[in-house]
# Entry
Amino acid sequence: MEDGLTTIEEKANSEDEDHILLASFKSLDVEMNGAASDGCAKNTHVQLISTDIQTCSDKIDSAPGAVTNASSFEEQSKLSKFLVCAGACLSMSLTAVLLFMFGVLLLAFVDNFDGQLVKMTSILSLHFGLNTLLGPFCTLFIDRFSCRASLVTGGFLQCVSFLGSAFIKDINGLMPVLGVIGGIGSCMCGTPVPVVISYSFGKHRAKFVTISQVVIGISMFIGSPLAFALLDMYALRGTLLIMAGLGANICVFGMLCKPNEREKSLQRHEERSSRPNELKTKKFQSLLEMCKKFSFMTFLLSTFTWNFVLAIIMLQLPYFISETKTHKDISGVMIIFSISNLAGRILGVLIVFLQNINLQILHVISLAVLGAFVTAFPLYNHLVNSEYVFAAMCGLCTGLPNCLMVPISLQLAGVSRLSAAHGLISFACGVGIVIGPPIASICYKSFGTYNGSFLVAGIVALAGSAFGILTSVFETPKNAEGNILCN
# Structure
């Protein structure tokens, strides 16, 4: 039966539609005769033959003769790609703006809840971390429904999260509402963006995915000044209400990401090849297969380390600067961080477009430089404007690996397993983001200074550089098409 199905699919891809139908139904006739001669398997064969007939019907409906104007079809295809790219980038932009406001919002939350720094940091880092921590589970949702459904659902959850947080007076109530619900919504908005862009663009998918990451750098530039402006005008509650409105707009932009034929065909393939109760098991098996690749696992560990450092900088650096500087200085430092992070992402885009530079070597170098600057920060933080230099180097050295993350995962996993690979990478990012800021806050409470926190963060970044070296050493060989083999 499987050989018969394969023959049908191969002949359906030929140019002569008359031969397609003739060959298809001849194959079906052979299968019917075989089914009739085997009474034990008759019902099973008939059910599969019905599926084959429906497949042939789909082929007839989608035949070139059904399209009256080929040029019009091509024009609609280009328009669809543009709308998908625009909707995905705008959704990612709003999600990133909401996330990168948290560093400034931490100051307002701590003041509003009587200086409970560790607990408030844990809540915000949970929201920040769930954005990527739940990546593998979000990919199951994407494969079952669509990227558009994920974006719309995520935008709704973020709206509910910020709206509810505006009226909560107990800090313990923020954990499930702002931390959990908001984090789930953020994950469902961020995870499908590179996936839907990869579905829409063929051989140039790595370039367009990289460009979409630049949008995050621009959003970082907006986040901190916007948070200060909203807090000055509307206080904490008003700011949260406006953030709820921004979350609702993600639903609108998500509707632009209409599933294309590639995404629909993959969903139909999953429905035909697996029974409903076996679909989730198959997806988890795919995730486990990726975890068996040593080079991919070392890359996951390396990704964890720089997200550990990034979360500490995003949430703790404003609080560290507030001890000796004004709000204007905090905004200036975070703008410098955002500009340099954007520069790192743009540099990553240019490198990916050049296609003649080893991406993994750049990943290793950026983490080594990041670890050196963060580890040595207690030695030079007393110098004039040292916080600006620190923010600039940290922004550059976290923006570059962030932009290279998806292209490297494409190299290690291939296009066929992009969804599973991206989910695992998102999970590694989330683990680093969730545990980083609370550890930094505990160190601060224990020693009364952030020097210990920066020392720990720097050592973790250096360890990430070492894991990156292992990834390059144990990388799986490439196949003839330039993709890394992933058997």
Remarks:
- The domain at 72-473 is CATH 1.20.1250.20 (Growth Hormone; Chain: A;).
